């Protein structure tokens, strides 16, 4: 007779839940990285535009060009502000998914530990039964002499 864990189905469900949580966490990390990369690109673009505007101002620049550059910088700043909010939301979502994954991992480990304990108890019981059987056989052989 082989070992059968009574909560094997529960263990399998917990394993599936952990795998699902890992997938969700990975997706949230990718989403965060995508938004953060967009934010970085916009910040870099704004910085380059500001530097270029400052250089042009030193050489002399028409007022219309200055106004256009300021509008571009202003537009980039509003986009940056939006992306900063998106990045914060993505980071918060990623942290929540990480906590959930940690919870599911701990939950799965509990069931795996229970299975190991039950399996060890089963093996110990099997060994005890085998020793008991061998003792009975040896007693019967002794009595027959």
From TrEMBL:
Gene3D superfamilies (alphabetical) = 1.10.287.1700
Q: Which UniProt keywords apply?
A: Bacterial flagellum biogenesis, Bacterial flagellum protein export, Cell membrane, Cell projection, Chemotaxis, Cilium, Coiled coil, Flagellum, Membrane, Protein transport, Transport
Q: Where in the cell is it found?
A: Cell membrane
Q: Which gene encodes it?
A: fliJ
User: What superkingdom does the record give?
Assistant: Bacteria
This protein's GO CC annotations: bacterial-type flagellum; plasma membrane
Query: Where would one find coiled-coil regions in this protein?
Result: 36-93
**Similarity remark:** Belongs to the FliJ family.
Name this polypeptide is given: Flagellar FliJ protein
One of the GO BP terms on file: bacterial-type flagellum-dependent cell motility
Q: What membrane topology does the annotation report for this chain?
A: Peripheral membrane protein
Q: Per the annotation, which location comes first and is thus the protein's main one? A: membrane
């Amino acid at each position: 007779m082989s070992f059968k864990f009574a909560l094997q189905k529960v263990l399998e469900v917990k394993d599936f839940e952990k795998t699902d949580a890992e997938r969700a966490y990975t997706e949230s990390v990718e989403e965060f990285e995508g938004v953060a990369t967009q934010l970085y690109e916009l910040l870099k673009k704004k910085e380059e535009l500001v530097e270029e505007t400052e250089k042009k101002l030193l050489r002399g620049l028409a007022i219309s060009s200055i106004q256009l550059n300021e509008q571009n910088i202003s537009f980039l700043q509003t986009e940056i502000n939006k992306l900063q909010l998106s990045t914060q939301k993505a980071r918060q979502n990623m942290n929540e998914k990480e906590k959930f994954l940690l919870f599911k991992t701990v939950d799965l480990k509990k069931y795996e530990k229970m299975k190991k304990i039950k399996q060890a108890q089963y093996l110990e019981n099997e060994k005890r039964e085998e020793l008991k059987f061998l003792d009975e056989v040896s007693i019967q052989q002794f009595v027959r002499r």
